[in-house]
Design a protein that fits this description.
The chain is α/β, with parallel strands linked by helices. The chain has a single domain, classed as Rossmann fold (3-Layer(aba) Sandwich). It has nine helices and five strands, in the order ααβαααβααβαββα. A five-stranded parallel β-sheet has the order 2-1-3-4-5, with helices on both faces. Helix 2 crosses helix 9 and helix 7 packs parallel to helix 8. The longest helix is centred in the last third of the chain and has 24 residues. The chain starts with a helix and ends with a helix.
């Protein structure tokens, strides 16, 4: 299983990021334990990363996540014909929403209001204190991501930034900023993938190790 140690063994240049990666993990665990959720956003490759993160959290990633015996019993009692099938094919989920995936809302907001506020609007609508906003930007200067972090922080959400060496303008908006020590976009993105895979694996282990 992935840990911070195995991540840094594969990417030794990420050693300076170790405390921030650990802090991001701790924020997510605290949020999920408290009934919170994760809101993720980015642009381009970072938009794909946002959806990737949600895919790792909302279903089994490295571990099996069977439903509890209580949930199974309730499904079978309420749905005699299909209950066992439902129970066999549902998996434990950690609630996460990719803000990049709401095509109609994003295009309508961009056309009617302001394109750089489409993620912030979703944070305003979905977000509750105790949730986490995770913004991804290799430069740290994506205005739509920064606005989402600003709104989240103002409303009492915790904020995580995943970015490059400088951190850009997003740094003041982040409770935790993971700054990959590189200025090369492909290298930053490669390490972003490794970082969020490690974080998702560790979070999954926290909640679903039997």
């Amino acid at each position: 299983m992935e840990t911070l140690e195995t991540l840094i063994a594969r990417y030794p240049d990420l050693a300076p990021c170790r405390p921030q990666i650990a802090s991001a993990f701790e924020l997510l665990v605290a949020s999920f334990q408290g009934g919170g959720k994760l809101l993720v956003c980015g642009n381009g490759g970072s938009a794909a990363d946002s959806e990737h993160i949600v895919g790792e959290l909302m279903k089994g990633f490295m571990l099996r996540r069977p439903v509890s015996a209580d949930v199974r019993a309730r499904l079978v009692a309420a749905n005699p014909a299909d209950g066992a099938y439902l129970a066999d094919h549902l998996q434990g989920a950690l609630p996460a929403i990719s803000l990049v995936s709401q095509t109609s809302l994003i295009s309508a907001f961009a056309n009617d209001v302001a394109a750089d506020m489409a993620y912030a609007q979703q944070v305003f609508g979905y977000g509750r204190p105790g949730d986490v906003v995770w913004g991804i930007s290799t430069s740290g200067n994506a205005r739509n991501v920064i606005h989402a972090l600003q709104v989240g922080r103002t409303l009492g959400l915790r904020t995580v930034g995943l970015t490059g060496r400088s951190g850009g303008a997003m740094l003041p908006c982040c409770d935790v900023a993971i700054r990959v020590p590189s200025d090369c976009t492909p290298d930053i993105q490669e390490r972003h993938l490794a970082i969020y895979h490690a974080v998702c694996t560790m979070v999954e282990q926290e909640f679903f190790t039997q």
